[in-house]
């Protein structure tokens, strides 16, 4: 490797795939830090970019380094940085916000109108080093393993979704057992849910949901989700639905299985418009529907640290594969096939 260069996974063309390349180690500004990446995990968003689907075609602008979930060590800091020091173990809030729009000024920076997302709108962390604004740093306990610390960002998505309303003593449906759905099972259990019912078509991931604490797992291709929920709730429906699948059929089932006055929190990103019976499944049921994006800055990160640091949620069962950065294609193949939980790459 040439001096001042690093290995990085580059989305190099407007086509499926990516390449491992030598790229310059980024320079930092006065308010930035340079982080040596120790672990970086693959997100569903990264898979969209890798596969080059309609969403990524409309959003990202190759060539650039992608990836946004990581943990590492600060190796250099700008002259005005005083919130972290060289040697600190860190992860990052991946939404870089403006600080002056109405949302930022009213404590809702997670929905900043001018958000830039690392690894989507600017260079990311599938590399040996990444440069970021110091204000986006989250200091990790040095005892927290790098692979666990690298999944805090998506774990935060699950925390934001599950804890968007009351959970203690309530029945919760997690629809879609991708990595965030699987982690959300553990979050709901830790928050005191009376039942956590996990739905998916993938037996491998349903098994991981069971390991994370699901009280019932349902293969929606073999059982009728509405019948199962009716039986488990004496016909009343579940109190909380966390929609993580993005599938139109599953989303409609979520609205039909929620109890009158219940809550539906939607983190998933359907690729096309979804038809919902608003009259019967929302209005007459008097439910609360909430779209979830990102993590509340930085309330969610406090919750993430508390849940992981206390041991109330152990995410290790759903971190199923590790690869060196050079073998990134193996990790993406597993994600596309759904034969994994969370895949972690090590630069």
What key phrases describe this protein's structure?
347 residues, alpha/beta, Quinone Oxidoreductase, Chain A, domain 1, Rossmann fold, 2 domains, 7-stranded mixed β-sheet, 6-stranded parallel β-sheet, 12 helices, 18 strands, 29% helix
CATH domain class name of the largest domain: Alpha Beta
For the record, the count of structural domains works out to: 2
- Determine the CATH topology of the largest domain: Quinone Oxidoreductase, Chain A, domain 1
Order of helices and strands: EEEHHEEEEHEEEHHEHEHEHEHEHEHEHE
Give the CA-based shape: globular
Q: What proportion of the residues is helical, as a percent range?
A: 25-40%
DSSP strand count: 18
Structural class: alpha/beta
Number of helices: 12
The amount of beta strand, in percent, is 25-35%
The CATH homologous superfamily of the largest domain is named Medium-chain alcohol dehydrogenases, catalytic domain
Main pleated sheet: 7 strands, mixed
Walkthrough of the structure:
The protein has 347 residues and is of the alpha/beta class. 29% of the residues lie in helices and 27% in strands. The strands form four sheets. Strands 3, 5, 6, 9, 10, 17 and 18 form a seven-stranded mixed sheet that branches. Strand 15, helix 10 and strand 16 form a beta-alpha-beta unit. The mean pLDDT is 96.
């Amino acid at each position: 490797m040439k001096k001042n260069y690093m290995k990085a996974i580059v989305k190099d063309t407007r086509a499926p795939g990516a390449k491992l390349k030598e790229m310059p180690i980024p320079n930092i500004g006065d308010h930035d830090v340079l982080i040596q990446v120790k672990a970086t995990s693959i997100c569903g968003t990264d898979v969209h970019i890798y596969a080059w689907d309609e969403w990524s075609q409309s959003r990202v602008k190759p060539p650039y380094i992608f990836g946004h979930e990581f943990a590492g060590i600060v190796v250099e800091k700008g002259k005005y940085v005083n919130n972290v020091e060289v040697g600190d173990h860190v992860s990052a809030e991946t939404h870089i916000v403006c600080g002056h729009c109405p949302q930022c000024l009213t404590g809702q920076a997670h929905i900043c109108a001018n958000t830039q997302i690392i690894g989507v709108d600017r260079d990311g962390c599938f590399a040996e080093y990444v440069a970021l604004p110091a204000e986006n740093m989250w200091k990790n306990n040095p005892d927290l393993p790098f692979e666990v610390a690298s999944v805090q960002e998506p774990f935060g998505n699950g925390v934001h979704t599950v804890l968007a309303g009351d959970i203690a003593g309530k029945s919760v449906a997690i629809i879609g057992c991708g990595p965030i759905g699987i982690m959300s099972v553990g979050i709901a259990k830790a928050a005191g849910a009376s039942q956590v019912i996990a739905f998916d078509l993938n037996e491998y991931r349903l098994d991981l949901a069971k390991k994370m604490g699901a009280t019932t797992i349902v293969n929606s291709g073999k059982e009728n989700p509405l019948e199962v929920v009716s039986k488990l709730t004496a016909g009343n429906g579940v109190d909380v639905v966390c929609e993580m699948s993005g599938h139109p059929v599953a989303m409609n089932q979520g609205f039909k299985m929620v109890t009158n006055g219940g809550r539906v929190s939607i983190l998933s990103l359907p690729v096309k418009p979804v038809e919902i019976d608003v009259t019967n499944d929302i209005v007459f049921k008097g439910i609360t529907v909430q779209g979830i994006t990102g993590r509340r800055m930085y309330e969610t990160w406090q919750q993430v640290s508390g849940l992981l640091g206390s041991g109330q949620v152990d995410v290790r069962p759903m971190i199923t594969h590790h690869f060196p950065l050079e073998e990134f294609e193996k990790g993406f193949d597993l994600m596309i096939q759904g034969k994994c939980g969370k895949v972690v790459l090590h630069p």
